[in-house]
Amino acid sequence: MNALAGTGLLTRLAFRRDRVVVPFWIYLLGITAIGTAYTSRAAFSTLAKRADFAASVNKNPSMLALYGPVQDASIGSVSLWKVGGIAAALVGVVSLFLTVRHTRGDEESGRLELVSAGVIGRYAALTAGLITVVTTELVLAVLVSIGLVALGLPTAGSIAFALGWFTIGLVFAAVAAVTAQLTTTSRTASGLAIAFLGLCYLIRAGGDVGGHDGPTWLLWLSPFGWMSHLRPYAGDDWWVIVLPVAFSAVCVAVAFALVGRRDIGAGLLPDRLGPAEAGAGLGGPLGLSWRLQRGSLFAWAAGFAVYGAAIGGVTENVEDMIGGSNGRDVLEKLGGGQGMVDAFTNAAMSLMALLASAYAVQAVLRLRSEETGRLAEPILATKVGRVGWALGHVLFAVVGPAVLMALEGVMVGLVHGLRSHDLGDQFPRIFWSAIVQLPAVWVIAGITVALFGFAPRLAVAAWGLLGVFLLLGELGPLLELKQWEMDLSPFTHVPKLPGAPMRTMPVVWLIAVAGLLTAAGLAAFRRRDLS
Amino acid sequence: MTDAISVSGLVKNFGRTRALDGLDLSVQTGEVHGFLGPNGAGKSTTIRVLLGLLKADAGEVSLLGGDPWRDVATLHRRIAYVPGDVTLWPNLSGGEVIDLLGRLRGGQDAKRKAELLERFELDPRKKGRAYSKGNRQKVALVAALASDAELLILDEPTSGLDPLMEEVFQRCVQEERNSGRTVLLSSHILSEVEALCDRVSIIRKGRTVESGSLADLRHLTRTSISVELATPPDGLADLPGVHNAKIEGRRVSLEVDTSQLDGVLARLTEAGVRSLISRPPTLEELFLRHYEDESVAADESVAAK
Question: How far apart are CA B264 and CA B256, in angstroms?
Fold first, then answer.
């Protein structure tokens, strides 16, 4: 077992490095599941209320596409319905980021090379990374199931629910273990894994959107579908767990085979030669940031276009299946405005705005990784000023989300407009419902710039904040949070177009706050020491 | 002649650690100035203050007549910098980085660039991630040397180069000096410093402990002498300035403070010199004296506790 020598040491090192991040995510995700179950217990106290709710959700394609069906009128099924969807995806995202961080991330930075010279086997780093992530997911699953049982929910269902989350964490850790072998940068490795996660979610949405009459076989093709086939609190089909476990095992085996075949630091694709001289475009800070950021912008844009087309494709169905007063009730409770299509569009756009914010955060954090990677230093030793250098990247956090949301608006508007034979009317309404989200996205970008300027070591906390805002928006109404708590998230202030009326003041305020945060962050960056 | 760099009483703290503690440095225009000190002495921190990347907590810093923190944009047109640990963007080729840095500095000499690429045997088409440490350093060196900057700031620029390339580097720096450019060279390679530098500054724990031409510094140190005499000497070890004297019959080896050389030689000739080997202090000895003082001082402070 020489190839595994040092695994224990590396695992301890990984936990030491993650001693803040991992507990934070376990706490946030755990509190989300347990908190949601706790508050909805009161709201859905009678069987009649629950059956009503389940029936209305299950008739509503937008709800089905976003979160999947309510499988049973049991209290567990109803109250954990929503966290089974989006929050489970968040479990997957955290899991894949952690995996990449401890595999390709260490390799890219050269840290792995440093430890590999010691008594560290070839497979030790990958094994240690996977152990770290799987342990994290296991702790989360145990805590969540204990919490749910403590609330008085059935033990078997609670374990099945937590196990569902665990399988998502496991699958995407395994997928990330593979993508981490394919590419030389952790950025592309995470990007590939996220794209795969998006695809899986989309397949699940496709399988669920039509209810029982839809293409439910699609569910068998997605880890999110497997999770719902576990049927927590609704029969608990334990054998389904074989699927994600087998899939993860195959991925892990592939990852190990790839590690065995390649050199340390290298990807699978050989490096090609580049140009001997710089093109005319590579002449300033903006030219450089374009070179560094364009790949990720293109990838995100492709993802947004596909999502846009998919969402536009199902929007039409929403109209056909308006679920009576109950459905409307539910949607209002979930934060939508009037009208099923409008509410669906708004829900979809809010979700895309969160994703666009994720793009903005990573675009700004590029500043930090350039700084800590000592790549800012040679640039800042030239006539390029600090603000000029920083603006080259901040520009992507401002213009990038605009491009993404505009693309989303165009795709949804176009596809839905064509399908409903009402392009002239639908397109502008949908397009503007996408664009109106931007000020909130820019606030997130501004927060990240401010963190980078004032507290550079905490800059990555922007991810945590984004996670908090996501859960606030998704679960705030269900958790019956107070208005001021909801108001903490910039997304709360976005006018709920296309259904609700446009309100200018919140938009102006959001833009002002975003501008102020960005300017303050840049000013602070100008004054501080470079690290 | 004016000073290209003039630093006095520079203080820089990182939290509670004091990285620079009243450092002085003066580099005259047109000279190659060696900047020496043990690891962690504050060389890179000083350079980063000079580049305006760090803000000084106290002290006067003047770079090409300006303030490196305030006049960043104007000063940086006139300097070129090679960091000690060169990292490159993984997806940019070496040639692209050289051109980019040249353009950001405000111009480079295309002919000189081509010539340098050839001399350093650097393939500019490789991507950043494919270069070895030495080759990454060459990328930064070519970019700096091909610029028309009047001041070159080089932070241990040859730590990854092979001896052949080290040779090329030394010739390049000599050419730079001949064409009137000023060079601040932080280095650990003493032969390089001896070959290139007009003057050196040695720093320790954030302070300048020695500064001057190599000849000046040598004067402060000891010369080693091994001698075979006609008759056994007498009272040699008690002469002022003599250290580590080993007398075995007529064979003597000792170290003598260079300023006291006269008296010792006179006494030796009295005894009759059969053969004599005298070695001037090497730069190594010069450094070791300063570096060792530090560890001795550290030991003493530990012992005192």
Answer: 8
Encoding tokens for residue B78?
């006139």
| Residues from chain B contacting residue A292 (CB–CB below 8 Å) | 89, 91
- Check CB contact under 8 Å for B127 and A274: yes
A260 vs B: CB within 8 A: no
Please state, in angstroms and rounded to a whole number, the distance separating the CA atoms of residues A97 and A89: 12
In whole angstroms, give the CA distance from residue A351 to residue B75.
Answer: 47
ipTM here:
0.81
Burial of B132 (0-12, 13-18, 19+ CB in 10 A): exposed
Q: Please confirm whether the linkage preceding A498 is cis (ω < 30° from 0).
A: yes
DSSP A233: T
Q: Does B111 touch chain A (CB under 8 A)?
A: no
Residue A267 banded pLDDT, cuts 50, 70, 90: low
| CB < 8 Å to A383, chain B | 73-74, 76-77, 104-106
Bridge partners of residue B25, in order along the sequence: B7
Per-residue pLDDT for B282 more than 80? no
pLDDT band at B288 (very low <50, low <70, confident <90, very high): confident
Helix (H, G, I), strand (E, B) or coil at B278: strand
Q: Give tens-digit pLDDT for B114-162.
A: 999 999 999 999 988 888 889 999 999 999 999 989 999 999 998 889 9
A113 touches B at CB < 8 Å: no
Q: How many CB pairs under 8 A join A and B?
A: 116
Q: What is the pLDDT of residue A326?
A: 55
> Which alpha helices (DSSP H) does A455-503 contain, by range?
461-479, 483-487
Q: Please tell me the pTM assigned to this model.
A: 0.80
Q: What angle, rounded to 10 degrees, do the helices at A438-454 and A504-527 form?
A: 20
The answer to whether B92 and B129 are in contact (CB under 8 A) is no
Say if strands B222-229 and B242-248 run parallel, antiparallel, or are unpaired.
unpaired
Please give the torsion angle defined by the CA atoms of residues A151, A155, A157 and A159, in that order, rounded to the nearest 10 degrees. 100
**What pLDDT is recorded for position B294?**
54
Give B199 to chain A, closest Cα distance, Å. 25
**Residue range A332-359: average pLDDT?**
77
The whole-angstrom separation of Cα A493 and Cα A439 is 10
Q: Is A378 on the interface with B (CB under 8 A)?
A: yes
Tell me if B77 and A380 make a contact (CB, 8 A cut-off): no
Joined together, the tokens standing for residue A425 give: 């009317």
Q: Measured between CA atoms, how close is B181 to chain A, in angstroms?
A: 17
CB contact under 8 A, A274 and B101: no
CA distances for A76 relative to A36, A55, A209, angstroms: 11, 16, 22
Which residues of chain B neighbour A268 with C-beta distances below 8 Å? Answer: none
B110 CA to chain A: closest CA distance, Å? 11
CB atoms within 10 A of CB A167: 27
Q: Establish if B194 touches chain A: CB-CB under 8 angstroms.
A: no
Rounded Cα distance, A431 and A429, in Å:
6
Q: Residue B295's pLDDT is what?
A: 56
CA–CA distances in Å: residue B94 to residues A268, A366, B98, B139, B172: 22, 21, 6, 6, 20
- A276 CA to chain B: closest CA distance, Å? 4
Beta bridge partners of residue B225, listed in sequence order = B254, B278
B67 to chain A, any CB pair closer than 8 A? The answer is no
| Phi, psi at B302, each rounded to 5° | -65, -45
Give the separation between CA B19 and CA B45, rounded to whole angstroms: 7
